[in-house]
């Protein structure tokens, strides 16, 4: 199959594209810059120059492919609608990447015992309401001749990267404080990046139209994550803080949606219907002795470590534009 992947140079997109290539699929990928295009070509992916606001580019690429896997972002409803309009009546597969952040509860560090399945009737917090509404629109589009699937990864980790963990690690290095909110008893489900890529592969081949899957293999308490990060960067212990202090350090949306909330899910549906069998390491183990230790741990002058992180951030900023 020829599969068009958005976010092909991103954390999820790279892993998914590699899994598809390993199975003999042909992959094209959306990319915003010529440097990014070169990186895709080097991995055997055909670049499609453009961004999520380039409706004509998205439409043409979707129609030229046998399937579309959208990994770029969970929060660009406009591009999702472009894909749904373009693919209507074609019977082609469209896989949307959402996230278990739709279950965020604004708990401010308290534990919520609720564990969500895909069938639970859910009223999302306002901060993620548009994301959840987009999920529902994609599921409903199956009635218009599109083979739609919504995948909701939990906190992704592995290879020393992720969306959340490097942000927390950098903050701990530069400030000398590894923070959690309140009692830090809130929990997030999590999934290893290679296991997540396998779930996308299985969904492409096995998921029925109009389906949705929560994807998680374990869960961890946010206070424990902060403690592992503290040890990783040479601090004595993590620190509890108020939401306001966390807002200043990390940004309010990050804190409300991820750092201080619960997002706990059951993934029995993916295991049963797709045959998904995650086998990756435990998140806390990977932070303490695995890929994060290899990449982030530092035993020299803390000042030098801060300077190195600042330099890395500057380079990433330049690349992203």
Summary?
By secondary structure, the protein is an alpha/beta fold. β1, α1 and β2 form a beta-alpha-beta unit.
What does this structure look like?
The chain is globular, with a radius of gyration of 20 Å. It is built from 14 helices and 12 strands. Strand 1, helix 1 and strand 2 (26-31) form a beta-alpha-beta unit. Helix 1 (11-22) packs across helix 7, helix 4 packs parallel to helix 5 (129-140) and helix 9 packs across helix 10 (252-259). With 321 residues, the chain is an alpha/beta fold. It has a 7-stranded parallel beta sheet, with helices on both faces. Strands 7-9-11 form a 3-stranded mixed beta sheet. The chain has a two-stranded parallel ribbon with strand order 8-12.
């Amino acid at each position: 199959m020829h599969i068009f992947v958005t976010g092909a140079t991103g954390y999820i997109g790279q892993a998914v594209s590699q899994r598809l290539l390993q199975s003999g699929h042909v992959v094209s990928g959306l990319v915003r810059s010529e440097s990014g295009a070169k990186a895709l070509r080097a991995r055997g992916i055909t670049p499609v120059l453009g961004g999520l606001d380039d409706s004509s580019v998205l439409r043409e690429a979707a129609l030229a492919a046998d399937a579309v896997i959208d990994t770029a972002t969970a929060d660009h409803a406009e591009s999702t609608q472009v894909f749904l309009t373009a693919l209507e009546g074609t019977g082609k597969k469209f896989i949307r990447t959402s996230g278990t952040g739709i279950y965020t509860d604004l708990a401010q560090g308290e534990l919520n015992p609720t564990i969500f399945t895909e069938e639970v009737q859910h009223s999302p917090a306002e901060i993620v309401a548009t994301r959840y509404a987009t999920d529902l629109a994609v599921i409903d589009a199956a009635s218009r001749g599109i083979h739609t699937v919504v995948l909701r990864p939990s906190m992704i980790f592995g290879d020393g990267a992720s969306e959340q963990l490097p942000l927390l690690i950098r903050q701990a290095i530069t400030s000398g404080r590894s923070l959690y909110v309140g009692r830090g008893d809130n929990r997030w489900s999590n999934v290893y990046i290679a296991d997540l890529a396998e779930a996308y592969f299985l969904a492409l081949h096995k998921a029925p139209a109009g389906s949705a899957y929560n994807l998680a293999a374990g869960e961890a308490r946010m206070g424990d994550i902060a403690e592992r990060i503290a040890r990783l960067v040479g601090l004595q212990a993590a620190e509890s803080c108020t939401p306001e202090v966390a807002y200043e350090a990390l940004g309010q949306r990050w804190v409300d949606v991820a750092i201080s909330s619960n997002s706990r899910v059951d993934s029995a549906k993916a295991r049963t219907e797709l045959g998904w069998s995650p086998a990756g390491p435990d998140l806390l183990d990977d932070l303490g002795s695995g890929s994060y230790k290899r990449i982030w741990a530092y035993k020299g002058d803390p000042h030098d470590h801060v300077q190195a992180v600042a330099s890395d951030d500057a380079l990433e900023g330049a690349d992203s534009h």
